[in-house]
């Protein structure tokens, strides 16, 4: 029984790791894209991953909704 439990835990951990890898790669790509866009001063590219219903509050407390507002 103990061996079966350990095997199940290893299998579960392996499955979790396999499922997270594509997500992690996607997030890392967004960060790379945003870093490149920021360094190039490209607001259009920087805002491309921003959600349509995403919100943003800047350091002055101004509130914005959507990628267009985020870009601008």
Count every helix, treating DSSP H or I runs of 4 or more residues as helices: 3
Mean pLDDT: 82
Q: What is the first-to-last residue Cα distance?
A: 60 Å
Overall strand count: 2
Please state roughly what percent of the residues sit in beta strands, choosing from under 5%, 5-15%, 15-25%, 25-35%, 35-45% or over 45%.
5-15%
Biggest sheet features: 2 strands, antiparallel
- Total of domains: 1
Low-confidence stretches: none
* SS-derived structural category: mainly alpha
Which word captures the global form? elongated
**What Rg do the Cα atoms give?**
20 Å
Spatial order of strands in the largest sheet: 1-2
What is the share of helical residues?
55-70%
Regarding quaternary structure, what we see is single chain
Q: What letter string, H or E per element, gives the SSE order?
A: HHEEH
Describe, in plain words, how this protein is organized in 3D.
With 72 residues, this protein is mainly α. The protein has helices spanning 2-40, 43-46, 66-71, and strands at residues 55-57, 63-65. A hairpin with a 5-residue loop joins strand 1 (55-57) and strand 2 (63-65).
Question: What are the key terms here?
Answer:
72 residues, 2 strands, two-stranded antiparallel sheet, 68% helix, mainly alpha
Could you write a compact summary of the structure shown?
With 72 residues, the chain is mostly helical.
Task: Record the SSE blueprint.
Elements: H1 2-40, H2 43-46, E1 55-57, E2 63-65, H3 66-71
Antiparallel strand pairs: 1-2
